[in-house]
Design goal:
This protein is α+β, with helices and mostly antiparallel strands and 305 residues long. Helices cover 23% and strands 27% of the residues. The chain is built from 7 helices and 15 strands. It has helices at residues 32-38, 66-69, 105-111, 114-131, 205-217, 265-272, 290-303, and strands at residues 43-47, 53-55, 64-65, 77-82, 85-91, 101-103, 143-146, 151-154, 160-161, 166-174, 179-183, 195-198, 221-232, 237-246, 259-263. Strands 10, 11, 12, 13, 14 and 15 form a 6-stranded mixed β-sheet that branches. A 4-stranded mixed β-sheet has the order 3-1-5-4. A hairpin with a 4-residue loop joins strand 13 and strand 14 (237-246).
Amino acid sequence: MTDPRPKFPAELSGFAFAGEPLNRADALRDDADALARLWPQARVIVLDADGNAFADEAGRLLVATGAALGGGPGTAVLLGLHGDTAWFSLEAEALPLTAPQRIDLRRAAASWPAAEASAFAFARAMQHWRSRTRYCGICGGAIEFRRAGYVAHCSRCGADHYPRVDPAVIVAVSDGERLLLGRQANWPARRYSVIAGFVEPGESLEQTVVREVFEETRVRVRSCRYLGAQPWPFPGALMLGFIADAEPDAPQVDGELEDARWFTVEEIAAARQRKGEDASGMLLSPRISIARSLIEHWYEGITAT
């Protein structure tokens, strides 16, 4: 007997920031001598106060080496190793360095090699955490960064604070024939995407999927399955991708989303071919995002039956 269910691909692919990760080299973070030896040949990503990276005339990563910058690692954050080469990130305000242009993370993700885009995403997330960790959250004391930038140590009470990541579920919800998409009011015109929301204390990921989908759309999820994850440093989330089966309830929104609706296979097929400059028609999430990969995953599965 033939299985009538959609033949969904086993894994997600195609999104940014998850490919070719650096070796995090945790053991080096406490080894000042080793970091000093690595510094001259190191590649350094320079970020401005807005989280943009220094780039050359063509929009490629402007690579500064430790030798060119001089001195030692100092306040630079160790990102990790690529082979025998260390990668660091450093704040532009600490350097007498200029660049032809500065590029934001979304633009870089669309054009840079995967390894460089992933390193930039890592650097941007660390910058965001460090910029918001100026004082101890327990006693209010001043903090100092240790372990090559990874620990914020309180000089008053001795507490250690670590980089924060906020887990969020993102889910392609289907009633077996259609895909549920919503849009926020501040998104580009006509753009729709899958449903997402942050995990709350005391919840499993599956419980978050059920709750978030119902809260945002009043659609009831029957079951869900985890597919993959994407670091999303805008500013510091980890997007946990799911696909879910749901009741064919009529979507209702109450403020968090501007609109939510079911889309047919034919509507998704047309949107996949549409470009942002098109005058009309629904637009999908950009291809750098796991949201778009979830949409593509659903479409490939539903059209393979």
